[in-house]
Design goal:
Layout (H helix, E strand, L loop, with lengths): L4 E2 L4 H9 L6 E3 L15 E3 L8 E4 L2 E5 L4 H6 L5 H10 L2 H6 L2 H7 L5 H8 L3 E5 L3 E4 H4 L11 E8 L3 E8 L6 E9 L5 E6 L6 E6 L5 H8 L10 H21 L6
Parallel strand pairs: 1-3, 2-3
Antiparallel strand pairs: 4-5, 5-8, 6-7, 6-8, 9-10, 10-11, 11-12
Helix pairs in contact: 8-9
Length: about 260
Amino acid sequence: MIKAYFRPATLDEAVALLMDKNKNLKPLGGGTRLSREQAELSGVVDLQDLSLDYLIKEAGWLKAGASLTLGSLLAHSDVHPEIKRAIRIDSHQNMRNAATLGGWLVSSDGRSIISTLLLALDARLIWEPGKQEVQLGDWLPVRKMEAPGVLITEIEWRDDLKLAFEYVARSPKDKPILIVAAAQWKSGRTRVALGGFGDSAIIAMDGPEANGADLASRDAYYEAEDQWATAVYRREVAAKLALRCVDRLTAGQESEA
């Protein structure tokens, strides 16, 4: 049961409410995460009047408001086909019509393709108060322990990068047990992220070129074992999927949106 509900008209008001430790409030976007935590809620701050549901293309960057739904992201013409494919795999229609990008990053685990792709893209988050810029890769490993602010307002990533991902799941409707995502800059810089295991995706490689992506992916998941797959399976298949991603980047191939 939600004990207190606030619907601020400005961002400053929302931040002030969330910073009040006596109130112990949580931000409310799409509500898909908080609906699972109602027993723990003392109150919420509804973000729907703050106009954080935008997507702007600016100087080689896409800047998405944290309240932008996955459905709106999917429908936007400037979004990379691989991100659209990830949204379709990660979420069903009802979920993506409600779930917000900011809420997804806060609540998703290592089996999210969307989060793994944004990690490969070296996305950054804008936090309030103070408009602090934080790389997604710096925040994900510590997100359950500390936060640089009280509210994510924006997620930003380069829109001029090559991007590819491959994944394995036990069935078409099951969550992935292995995800490999690779992004490549015009300079040749190549960043490989792995998902399908643990609390969050991880970076396997971030280097000046793509060589060694397979070995880095194998090493990064050396101990990635759980009830869904053995570490031996994950590290061997991760190496193969990394090579497949690199081949797609080199060939300039993209999956259909």
